[in-house]
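In this section we walk through a basic example: taking a raw amino acid sequence and producing a predicted 3D structure, encoded as discrete structure tokens. The instruction is simple. Fold the sequence below.
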Amino acid sequence: MSLPREVIRVPGDWVAVILAAGQGKRMNSGLVKGLHALLGRPMVWHVVRAVREAGVERVILVVGYQEDRMRTALGTDVEYAVQKQQLGTGHALLQTRDRLEGIDGDILVVCGDTPLLDPQDLRDLMAMHRQERAAATILTALPDDPSGFGRVVRSAQGTVQAVVEERDASSAQRAIGEVNTGIYCFRAKDLFPALLRLGADNVQGEYYLTDVLSLLAREDRPLASLACPDPQTVANINDRVQLSHAAAFMQHRRLVQLARSGVTIWSFSSTFVGVDVTVGQDTVLLPMTFLEGECAVGRRCVIGPNVTVKNAVVGDDCQILQSVVEASRVDHGVTIGPFTHIRPGSHLRDGVKVGNFAELKNAFVDVGSKIPHHSYIGDAQLGKGVNIGAGAITVNYDGRKKHNTTIGDAAFIGCNSNLIAPVAVGPGAYVAAGSTVNQEVPPGALAVARSRQVNKPGWAGRHRE
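The resulting token sequence is shown next.
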């Protein structure tokens, strides 16, 4: 995953650590929690992106459960530390000691299951940490329901003294509304000595990272805090219900961005746009439109209803109705649908029209050509101004190999024709309706490849008798 282009960079002595070693048992899944998808990307990918957009270039991901799958999903653009036994968040952060102990800088710590993070909140937290010259700074929140969260305990003067996990909290502490988001900044020179002194005297029998705050407070090290303005953005995802809510929140936020950039969206509740999708100004997205993967849609298009475009590029002034476009390129002024399937490897040039119940696969269709309906065009190259009649098929598979069909400029392919590949139809040539062509058709020629009609008078009556 590459660094987003337009970010506000922070000083290079910042390092981000993302804690993502846990299994996530409440997901009831064979897949580690961090790899469950939101808007087409793994949950932890969104966390990495938020950290990068906050301006931190060096990112260390603490992995454990399904380590290999996490490495495959995130690639080499992040560093990895391994927590072989899941003994708590403090123990997880300690696994970065060999890489970070002794650095002269600060460490941003976030959880791998907080995909809704706002990069601006992270930037504000880091700025507060440096401004206060704090040993540690914690991001807090005031959710409507604090249950399940660790509570922030403050002194009479209002300074942070500790974070108490709910399972270990007294009834008075559980009444506190301010909670820990699991997001911190630490001064590196203060962090690791404190981590080495952690104990596991708690209900979970784990080494809590939150206990570092108590240790630093007892040593009169300066602690700071910042309240997150929107508790939803720091919500942890622990089960599939929360995953669904997060997806809805993230999708709404994405659609709002598009709408404000000049895209018309008829139905927020039935439109899906992935995080890697761009949509041009004055394009209209109709209900049940799904734009997935690395996808770009140009300006002044009308997409939908009931359309899926995945890993494809669509130019300006296109119309796609009730169709699927996959891993293909569609240039300007193209009309597709209804009920069309553009399969991977296809390229439709300017002004092409593909109508209902047509299927294209690995097909190049040049400017102004038409495939109106009920046709299959696979492994084919069509020139400019070609007309394909209803029911025409390029027969590209012989049972072992795929073969190519070439159709020249301004050729006309009659209805219910079969072009047995490999075969070429020359420019300006005609193929008569109902023909099965397995030889080259010269430019300007008419190919008739069908049996001669024979009429037998009276046969029908005799047959019925």
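Looking at the output, two observations stand out. The radius of gyration is 31 Å. The longest helix spans residues 240-260. In the next section we compare this with other chains.
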